[in-house]
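If you are new to this repository, start here. Below is one unmodified record pulled from the training split, so you can see the exact layout before writing a loader.
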Amino acid sequence: MSKTFVNEQNLDDYNSSLTGKTPQEIVKWALSIAKNPIITTNFRPYEASILHLVSSIRPDITVLFVDSGYNTVQTYKHAQKLIKELNLNVVTYIPAQTRAFRDVALADVTINGIPDVDSEYHGKFTEQVKLEPFRRALAELNPDVWFNAIRKDQTEFRTALDVLSLSKDGVLKVAPLFYKSADELNQYQADNGLPTIDEYGEDDYFDPTKALAHRECGLHTQL
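And here is the target side for that same chain:
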């Protein structure tokens, strides 16, 4: 059951109504119908855009960060800087198992603690470090609107989506930057004086559940 009045039957109509709207207009519309909105972030490159965009309109919005334990030093430094500069209301969820325990438990089937993407163990790994913590967070936070930074040009799966989509639990997922390019996001960040992850020495973000940039991590296909 949908948690807002947007459902599978009228989803296309609402997406059509948002055609040509600016990201700011999309955010304001979504916030106007939300009772308990959240933003999800992994603090990867360009995440500063969605965090600034939404928090500048709703400063106290809950920002959900699921920390897999495999982030780089640069990513953690980037996260700390964004949290401080944007005064973000961050709630962090972590896997039920520690990275150290998993490294030992899966030692025979991993490379540096991470199963190969073609391994039969990769699905279990993804469930442990990303999907289970996200499900737990969504169940406890109980949002009705979920802002995210997915974009149409990122993966083949996302080309079939739109600004609005629905989670399997009926949460309205809103992607205000869905039709924006990397160049446009670079310009947005420059215009708003936002830090970029490469300020810490290199563009060093790593998602162990994706391995390759064009792969889906499972978050938007399974939740």
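Two things worth knowing about this chain: The longest helix spans residues 122-141. The chain has one domain: 11-222.
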